[in-house]
Amino acid sequence: MAQQQNGGPMVEGKVVVVTGAGGGIGRDIALALAAEGARVVVNDIGTSTSGEGQDAGPAQQVVEEIRAAGGQAVASTDSVAESLAAGRIVQCALDTFGRIDGVVNNAGILRDRFFHKMSLDEWDAVLKVHLYGSYYMSRAAASHFKEQESGAFVHMTSTSGLIGNFGQANYSAAKLALVALSKSIALDMQKFHVRSNCIAPFAWSRMIGSIPTDTPEQQARVAKIQQMTPAKIAPLAVYLLSDAAREVNAQVFAVRNNEIFLMSQPRPLRSVHQGGGWTPQDIAQHAMPALRSSFVPMERSGDVFSWDPV
Question: Where do the Ketoreductase domain residues begin and end (predicted)?
Answer without folding.
Answer: 14-210
